[in-house]
Amino acid sequence: MSTTAPAQVRMPAGHGSHRVRRVAAELLNEAAVLVVSLIAASMVIFGLLAVLPGDPAAVIGGMDATPEQLEALRAQMGLDRPLWARYLDWMGGVLTGDLGTSALDSRPVAAELGEKLQVTVPLGLLALLLSVLIAVPVGVVAAVYRESAFGRAIAALSQLAAAVPTFVLGLALMVFVALPTRLFPVQGFPADRWAEPGEALRALILPATAIAIGQAAVLVRFVRSATIDVLMKEWVRTGLAQGWPLRAVLVRQGMRNAALPLLGVLGLEIAGVLMGSVIVEQLFALPGVGGMLLADVGNRDIVSIQSTLFVLTALVMISTVTLTALSRVLDPRIRRTS
Questions:
Q1: Which whole-number Å values give the CA distances from 188 to 203, 283, 328, in the listed order?
Q2: Do residues 96 and 108 touch, judged by C-beta distance below 8 A?
């Protein structure tokens, strides 16, 4: 059986422009869905925080505040206004970049959140990068040796790693890596942030690894399945039987076919990475969004909580839609089934 590539088929005139229009229509559809989803998310966040039991004015005013002082505080915080008016004011500010001011110290939420994101965003990106660097080779090896005890052991270990809580992985890295080797700080982040990038990156390596291990364990299964799908194709098996090098097949076809579905999965993994960041930042004493959010919840700083949650939700949604749209543009199989 010949393994030469089939002759190219001449596409009809206008095929390219039709494809461009179709991709553009899909991207516009994704953008419209994103806008509607963001509006729905803002309503859910605002509504849930508004109906929570308890009085934020009482928390801010303290135990010694008189009823008159509490009433004045509620009016100052806008809590005596209708719910819809407060929502429109908040969303109007969000659209202009004004996320409100903290009820505790009157500090602009946008400024504080921007400062915290300087730690959380690099931590999340580094965790995603490490998870891909771990998952791709491990998933390919697990697919190639799927019939052997080695391949089954990799699959079992990936399931075990996915079940271990992130804070346990973080503790293990602190005890078995940071303390004995002194290569990485056990806790903390440079006070001058990224003035010395090497020191800042060194402080994020272990926290990012703790997040990446769990995320990589999930991604390994997708890479393994995609690689097995390539290896089971008729033309690949024929080529291997005729002496094609397995490494060349994996690099040229396996990696490419595994990368496209991996883009869509990475979009879903971003939410898990942010959730892991909240836990890991506390464990490694990193001044990120996680610590800010937990402190705001303890203080019932509603404006700061709802703005922080909305920004995090928007980051996850925008990243997910962008990666999904990118995978649709690059992978014709997804376009045909969408």
A1: 7, 10, 41
A2: no
- What length is written for the chain? 338
Question: Nearest 5 degrees, angle CA 189-CA 195-CA 200?
Answer: 35
pLDDT at res. 309: 92
CA distances 221 to 106, 162, 218, Å, are: 47, 11, 6
Out of 67-71, 200-204, 259-263, 266-270, pick the least confident.
259-263
pLDDT > 60? residue 4 = no
Structural contact between residues 288 and 123, judged by C-beta atoms closer than 8 angstroms = yes
Q: Write down the H helix ranges in the chain.
A: 15-50, 56-61, 67-77, 83-95, 109-144, 149-163, 166-173, 179-181, 197-231, 234-241, 246-249, 255-283, 289-299, 302-330, 332-337
DSSP 8-state assignment for residue 195: G
Asked if residue 12 has pLDDT above 60, the reply is: no
> Is-contact 236 144, C-beta < 8 A?
no
**150-170: average pLDDT:** 87
Of 223, 316, 215, the residue nearest 261 (C-alpha): 223
pLDDT at 219: 87
Name, in order, each residue with C-beta under 8 angstroms of 229's C-beta and a sequence gap of 6 or more.
Answer: 257
Per-residue pLDDT band for 1 (boundaries 50, 70, 90) equals very low
The number of angstroms, rounded, from the C-alpha of 114 to the middle of its chain's C-alpha atoms is 17
